[in-house]
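As a warm-up, study this chain.
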Amino acid sequence: MTEPIRSTSKLIPITRDTHGVDIDLVYATARNLTGKPIYQHAHCLLLEPAEAALRTAIAIARDSGFALRIFDAYRPPQAQQVLWDFLPDPTYIADVKRGSNHSRGAAVDLTLLDANGEALDMGTGFDAMTVESEHFHPGLPEHVQRNRLMLLGVMHAAGFTHIKSEWWHFELPGALALPLIDNANSGPLRLM
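Now compare it with the structure written out below.
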């Protein structure tokens, strides 16, 4: 069971050493939908209750012979603005007026890795922002559906919920009630 979400919770660093996950923060690289780095430094952070739920997900995945690769976690509101300016489509990018649950420290984008450290085939890449990225998109091969269901099961069992449009995005239920965390200038995660 995850901890109750408190707005007084702090952001916790997620690292390979402390959590046993693979981290590939694509917004610190040009390998994202904007084609340019958004973060200057690749620091992976989550709010305490999300970090606790992630630890549960890591254990569930490990017990099933898998590992997790994280693509994004906490995202400063300024980075959310960059994404919204690039693709102002609320199907895929949270409207900056509402704010992203990433900017609340309560959402994580990730995938499953097999025992060899290879990412499972999810049918689209991270950040594809297409209809094929939806959970349960009809017409995808069986193995892709199975891989997505496995990821969904791990994350739901850990206390996360999903959104329809992105197979990689998971967040804590009730996260929208949390305030946005503006850590862009005060913490280790800075914008380009």
